[in-house]
Design a protein that fits this description.
Number of strands: 34
Largest sheet: 9 strands, mixed
Low-confidence stretches: 1-11, 57-73, 75-85
Distance between the termini: 38 Å
Shape: globular
Length: 546
C-alpha cells in the first residue's frame, strides 16, 4: 500500500509552504519508564485514541486488519516485556505523531539511549504506587542532557497509590524539575472518580465499563464550579478536591512554554492507561505543549528541519522484522527537507551515493510503502549491510550528524556454537545482531580463541541473543561466562597500549572496529592499573571511527 499526503490538505502548494506546514504539524516523542509502569499499555491507548487501532488488546491495524502490536518480537509476546524499540505513526487532530516506543527493561537501556537521540519530546511514565524508580531516573538524565521537553504521566491511579502531592514533591525534589499540574486526580485506588482538567477548568468523571479499557471511554464533563458535582462525589472526596485545587492555584507556577521546551518544567498528568482515564486529555494537551521537530547540530552547524535539502541519520538497525524474508531494516530519522522514495543521497561516512529504494512506513512489524516523509518522521530502509548506527545520509553539501556512542558493558561471555555444521548461520546471526546493536561483540586477541565474546549491559540481553539465534537463524548456542564486570576503550589505540606494557589482571579484547578494549574483574582492578600507569587513558564510551 502506498501512502501520500495529498496537496489539497496543505495551506499552499508551493514547496516551501508545504515543507513548513508538514514539519509544524508533526510531533515526535519517546516514552521512558521503569519496567511494569504500564508503557506498552499507554502506547496502545494512545494508538486507540489516535485511531491507529480499533480495539486495545486485540491491536488491529486500521488499514490492514493484521495483528500489529508494539511488542512484536516473539520473545516480547511470550514474556510480556518490551525488548526492542519500535516506531508507531498515527494522526490525531490534524497532527501527525511519531511515537518511538522504547524498551522499559534496564538490560536494554542502550537501545533506549539510541532512540532518545531521534526523539524531540519525552513522556516520563510513573507508576503512582511506586513513584520514581531506578530506570526512570537514569533515562531522565539522558533527556536532561539533551534538553528534551519532558511530559509526566502518572499512571495506575485506579490502584492503591502514593498521594498526588507526594508524587509531585518527589519529582521536584529528586529530579530538580519544576512541575506544572495539568490534570489533577479525584481520588485514588477504588475511589478514583476521574480528573480535573485545569487547562479547560472542566471535570471529567469516568465510568468503568465491561470493555476493561479496550475501547474509548465515555465520560461526564462539567465545569469545576458545577453545583451537581457535590452530589456526584462522596463528601470527603469533594472537600479534598476543593482543598487540593485551592492549594494548586496558590503554589503552582505559571504555564511557561519556553521552560517546557527547554526541559526545565514538566507538565504533569494523572490517569489510568489500563482504563483510559486521562489518556485523551493528555494527548490533547501534548499537541499544544510539545515542540515540533527541532534543529539538529551537525559538523556544518545547526540544521533546521525546514532546511530545503534532505538529511537524516540512522539511529537503529533491526534484523528479521519479517522472518520470512530475513530482512534487515535501518531506522532513519528525517532531520531536514523532504524525503522521497528512490531519491539518491550521499552516505557521509563512506562518501558513496546510494539510492533509498523500498522505503517503508513502520507500524511495529507492519510496513507500508512511503512516498514522502518530513522532519520528525522515521523511515525504514532496506539495509543490505550499507548502514551502521549513527550514519548520516543527505542531499546537497555533505554534512555529518553526531555519532551515537556505545556504552561500557558489564557482563561478558564466550558465545559457543553447539552445532559446527551451522557455522555459516552462526556467523551470519552474530554479525547481524551486532549490526543492530542487540549486543556488543568483542573478540579475543588470542587467535586460538575464535568464539565471539558477548558484551552486555544485562543478563536478559544474553537470553535474547540466544533466543533469536535459535528462533531466527536455527542455531543453538551455549555461553561460557567470563569473570569481568568493567570494560574500557583505550584512548590512542594499540600504539598507546604497546607503550604502556604489561597490565595485571586485565583481559585485552578488540571491538568490531578492531580497537583495543580492556576488561577488568572489578572497578578496583581498573583503578589499580590506572594508578600504576598514569599515562594510560581509557574511556567508558566509544564512538564509531570516522
Amino acid at each position: 500500500m502506498q501512502l501520500e499526503i495529498q496537496p489539497e490538505q496543505t495551506q499552499s502548494n508551493s514547496p516551501d509552504d508545504r515543507l513548513n506546514w508538514e514539519v509544524n504539524r508533526r510531533r515526535n516523542f519517546a516514552i521512558i519508564s521503569h519496567p511494569d509502569a504500564g508503557k506498552t499499555t499507554l502506547t496502545e491507548k494512545l494508538l486507540l485514541y489516535g485511531g491507529a487501532i480499533q480495539e486495545a488488546g486485540a491491536v488491529k491495524a486500521k488499514r490492514a486488519q493484521r495483528s500489529a502490536t508494539s511488542d512484536w518480537m516473539a520473545m516480547e509476546q511470550q514474556r510480556g516485556i518490551s525488548i526492542t524499540s519500535t516506531v508507531l505513526q498515527f494522526e490525531y487532530q490534524q497532527h501527525l505523531l511519531n511515537l518511538l516506543d522504547t524498551p522499559g527493561h534496564q538490560d536494554f537501556s542502550e537501545d533506549t539511549y539510541r532512540t532518545l537521540a531521534a526523539a524531540d519530546n519525552a513522556v516520563m511514565l510513573i507508576d503512582a504506587a511506586k513513584g520514581l524508580e531506578t530506570q526512570t531516573r537514569k533515562l531522565f538524565e539522558v533527556c536532561r542532557m539533551r534538553q528534551l521537553p519532558i511530559f509526566t504521566f502518572i499512571n495506575k491511579l485506579d490502584r492503591p497509590s502514593l498521594s498526588p502531592l507526594e508524587l509531585i514533591d518527589e519529582i521536584e525534589q529528586e529530579l530538580g524539575l519544576s512541575t506544572y499540574v495539568v490534570n489533577w486526580p479525584i481520588g485514588t485506588g477504588d475511589r478514583f472518580r476521574g480528573v480535573v482538567d485545569r487547562r479547560q477548568q472542566k471535570i471529567h468523571l469516568f465510568e468503568k465499563t465491561a470493555s476493561h479499557g479496550s475501547k474509548k471511554v465515555t465520560d461526564t464533563i462539567m465545569s469545576v464550579d458545577d453545583p451537581r458535582l457535590k452530589s456526584l462525589l462522596e463528601a470527603d472526596l469533594y472537600q479534598q478536591l476543593q482543598d487540593d485545587l485551592e492549594l494548586l492555584d496558590g503554589v503552582s507556577p505559571e504555564l511557561d512554554l519556553e521552560a517546557i521546551h527547554h526541559g526545565q518544567l514538566t507538565p504533569v498528568f494523572f490517569g489510568s492507561a489500563m482504563n483510559n482515564f486521562g489518556v485523551e486529555l493528555f494527548l490533547e494537551a501534548f499537541l499544544d505543549y510539545a515542540i515540533a521537530p527541532a534543529p539538529h547540530e551537525s559538523d556544518q552547524g545547526e540544521i533546521a528541519p525546514t532546511y530545503p535539502e534532505f538529511s537524516g541519520f540512522v539511529f537503529k538497525l533491526q534484523a528479521n522484522m519479517d522472518p520470512k524474508h530475513r530482512d534487515r531494516v535501518a531506522f532513519l530519522r528525517v532531520c531536514s527537507g523532504q524525503f522521497e522514495k528512490d531519491m539518491v543521497v550521499t552516505h557521509t561516512r563512506t562518501g558513496k551515493t546510494i539510492r533509498l529504494s523500498r522505503p517503508q512506513k513502520l507500524f511495529a512489524q507492519d510496513r507500508e510503502t512511503v512516498e514522502v516523509a518530513y522532519a520528525g518522521d522515521v523511515v525504514g530502509l532496506n539495509n543490505p549491510g550499507s548502514f551502521a548506527i549513527g550514519d548520516t545520509v543527505c542531499m546537497g553539501k555533505p554534512i555529518r550528524y553526531p555519532e551515537i556512542p556505545s556504552f561500557s558493558p558489564e557482563l561478558f561471555a564466550f558465545l559457543k556454537n553447539a552445532d559446527p555444521t551451522k557455522y555459516k548461520n552462526f556467523n551470519k546471526g552474530v554479525s547481524e545482531l551486532q549490526e543492530e546493536g542487540a549486543v556488543q561483540i568483542l573478540n579475543s586477541t588470542d587467535e586460538s580463541k575464535r568464539d565471539p565474546i558477548l558484551a552486555a549491559v544485562g543478563q536478559l540481553q544474553f537470553e535474547v541473543v540466544q533466543f533469536r539465534l535459535s528462533n531466527e537463524y536455527g542455531v543453538e548456542t551455549r555461553l561460557e561466562i567470563l569473570p569481568y564486570s568493567v570494560a574500557r576503550w583505550v584512548v590512542g589505540g594499540w600504539e598507546t597500549l604497546e607503550k604502556v606494557g604489561r597490565l595485571f589482571n586485565t583481559f585485552i579484547a578488540k571491538d568490531r572496529w578492531g580497537r583495543p578494549v580492556l576488561l577488568f574483574n572489578n572497578q578496583w582492578n581498573l583503578d589499580q592499573n590506572l594508578a600504576d600507569h598514569p599515562e594510560l587513558k581509557v574511556s567508558p564510551i566509544a564512538l564509531p571511527p570516522s
